[in-house]
């Protein structure tokens, strides 16, 4: 049988600003994956997370507590959190000892929301990089609240943060616009949703901003920022409604492609994934979506194996 060595593990590092929906995503994605028949282990790497809605296989809170750190070192919540991540970085043996018995599982890492951890602080990147040495192949799943689409200035700042995160974290990367179920409540968007997800011609955003007397003064700055984003040509988004199975399926498809899961242990799966990549279409997943839906409805645990063999 061709494919990855049995020790290779796959998973997702779920990152994004505070309140973007990371913990909710971990719950929704873990339920979806279990319905597909994958063995899932959710790892909480956020010491600030309280009352976790999912069953947690490993909790960083067992290693270091945010409250203890704040009290002992007289730090605020932000500084305390950064210290906790540095402490984890310095004690990765603990994490490895927790993860090794879970080999064979698909990992979801629920990460802290401090933006600096993903844009310039080194601890989280170093933890991910060490995991790669443990043959743990992660996709960074970066959630951004779709609310930001409603304001062109906020959307430009989100594009900058997403680009900085992609460059800093150094993992295969998928950006998501979360909470799509709420987008209609936020008011009418200035452009079609595709415009925000594809991130193509940003000059329209500039024109839209120029109509605001405040932002007119910053046109040159915004032009340079937009030019930078377009020059890298890296940022795009997938819309996510965590309640909608098709939406979660589309996300999973992109994540599996990014971390190589779809080229994994089953020869058949590898072949179909390679054909998909070759023809530039979602050959395997889209043809089996109907079947997966059917099995999801009946919660059949063997669905993934069966669909892979089609
Ligand atoms: N309507 C809606 N609400 C959501 C969705 N995802 C998350 N929420 C809500 O948004 C709030 C924040 O969600 P969390 O999952 O805790 O966000 P988080 O990114 O883990 O937050 P931090 O851990 O504080 O950084 C909660 O009240 C969730 O119920 C979604 O897809 N739709
Ligand atoms: Mg959380």
From TrEMBL:
Q: Name one GO molecular function term.
A: GTPase activity
Record flagged with keyword RNA-binding: no
The cross-references to InterPro entries, in alphabetical order and at most eight, read:
Gpn, Gpn2, P-loop_NTPase
- Which Pfam families does the record match to this protein? ATP_bind_1
Q: Which GO terms describe its cellular component?
A: cytoplasm
Is Metal-binding there in the keyword field? no
Q: Which domain of life is it from?
A: Eukaryota
Please name the SUPFAM superfamilies in this protein's record. P-loop containing nucleoside triphosphate hydrolases
Provide the alphabetized UniProt keywords.
GTP-binding, Hydrolase, Nucleotide-binding
Q: Which PANTHER family match?
A: GPN-LOOP GTPASE 2, XPA-BINDING PROTEIN 1-RELATED
Family (UniProt): Belongs to the GPN-loop GTPase family.
Subunit (UniProt): Heterodimers with GPN1 or GPN3. Binds to RNA polymerase II (RNAPII).
Query: Its biological function?
Result: Small GTPase required for proper localization of RNA polymerase II and III (RNAPII and RNAPIII). May act at an RNAP assembly step prior to nuclear import.
What is the protein name for this chain?
A: GPN-loop GTPase 2
Tell me what gene encodes this. GPN2
